[in-house]
Each structure stands twice: as structure tokens, then as C-alpha cells.
Amino acid sequence: MGHLQPPPSPQSQPLAPASRPQPPILAVESVTKHYRRGSERIVALTDLSFSIDAPEVVAIAGPSGSGKSTLLNLLARFDVPDSGEVRLDGQDLASISPAALDEFRNRKLGFVFQQFNLLPVLSALENVELALAPQALSRAQRRERAIAMLERVGMGYRLAHKPGELSGGQQQRVAIARALVGRPRFVIADEPTGNLDSKTAAEILQLISELNQTMQTTFVIATHDPRVMQLANSVIELADGQRIG
Which residues form a coiled coil (predicted)? Predict the structure, then answer.
């Protein structure tokens, strides 16, 4: 009869490798940015730091000239800091070569604008499909994903309508579908409620909140709208290029 072997002592068991902590979704570390206007040096951001550790809705708030637009440009890698770092999923955005930028934005980023920025000659479906053009998908796959995303934002009944045939709120829903159809981790939104009436703005904000939770997509929203600040999980307030509060 065989004999049961005693379990190995704790000292003899191999140690499990320590798991590496996940980097923040976004880390802005000691970022400073200035511009030149003739001989004048305009400081847009000064020693700005914050991080986003979990998918959430973050509001970037502040008056005109506070540095909101400069910060969005850095997050989208349309510009780079003079000093400090902006890292998305642990990657320093300044290290991305110009040749790799389009592919990086297509994989990682979505954009929503105050003016919607839909192509007027294309239908809602075609506008959303266009965002998938850089991806290695068949035409049928692009169409299927675009329809599914438009249905998700409540626009499945308006697929064939062009932007001029849609209300402002409907156009913004199409724009949100376009931003999310590529399944980015991170969406940058610039005043997305700025051109909407109060009721429609509330509906769009509720939609953003639902998409954040169900798709685990982080939204960073530059805004003057106090309703966005109330919705947000956190608020980064800027004044004269510095974080306040």
C-alpha cells in the first residue's frame, strides 16, 4: 500500500512571483508648458500633476485661459510638455514617434467635440464606420460594429440620416458612438454639452456615465458646465495653468 506523502513545508515551496502593480490609466507628472507670443512668454501649465487609476469620468474645469485646452492637447499628443511627463497606460506620450501617432490614437483614444465634427455628406452609420477604417476589419465587420455602437447610444433608428437631418443631441450621440466604436481605453471630450439645451445635455451626461460603467472607458471632459462636475468621479480645477483646490 502506498503511503501519503506529507505536504512540503512552507520553506520548500517555490515563492510565487510578485505581481507588478498596474500603472495608472493616466499619469500627469510635473508638467509645464509655455508658448511664445512675439517676445512674450505665455505660461499655459505650471508643474501640473494628477493621475487616474481606474476607469472613471474626470472633469477638467476652469475659466478660459486656465490651461484646459493645453492640457487636452497634451493628453491627445497633439503637443508635448516642456518638462514633466504625460503617460497613458504607462507609456510616455512624448516617446511616440510621429510615424506611430495615428496608430496610437486609433487604438487608445476617442474624441468628442463641442461642434460634433461629423462629416455632413455622410450618414450617421458612415460617420461611425469611418472611424474603423484604419483597423484590419472587413467592410461587413465595420458595419456590424458601427450599427451595434449606434444602437448602444440610442441611434439605431437613425442610421441613414445625415448630420443636417439630426438634432444637436442626436449628432452628439453619433459623435460619441464614433469615439467609442474603436473600443479605446480613453476618451477626450471638449465641452461636449456646450451646444446643447439643458434637457439634452443632461441626457448626454447620463449616456456618458452609463458608457463609462458598462464599457470601462475613461472620459476626461474639459468643461464650464457645473452638471459635468457633479457627474464626474473627480474634478481637476485649473486657474492660470495651475491646479487649485
Answer: none
